Amino acid sequence: EVQLVESGGDWVQPGSSLRLSCAASGFAFENYNMSWVRQPRGKGPEWVSAINSGGSRTYYEDSVKGRFTISRDNAKNTLYLQMNNLKPEDTAVYYCATYSVVGETVEYGHWGQGTQVTVSS
After folding, report:
1. pLDDT 10s digits, 78-92
2. Bridge partners of 83?
3. DSSP-assigned beta bridge partners for residue 6
């Protein structure tokens, strides 16, 4: 059974840091590109960051560049998102997901259940 389990979400004050983890099982994690997607309450999903299967290429949405760092440990089947200098607008449920690029289209595959990040004073 394919599973992606996120953890690390919390309530923090602006300017704080959090590290999210996504533990993968049931598939060959090292062969899959991975992404973080977030969804603020009452809004649609927002792509945050992505990393290729080998971890050599990373991508970020403009609002998180310089604050968030995506990484992966293929030996541990785990994806990470280090989030620094958090802002209230980062408040959302964060999901990890596998993805592939077909032509110019990004197609998501497996999703986790999400972890809540709340940034508020």
Report:
1. 999 999 999 999 999
2. 18, 68
3. 22
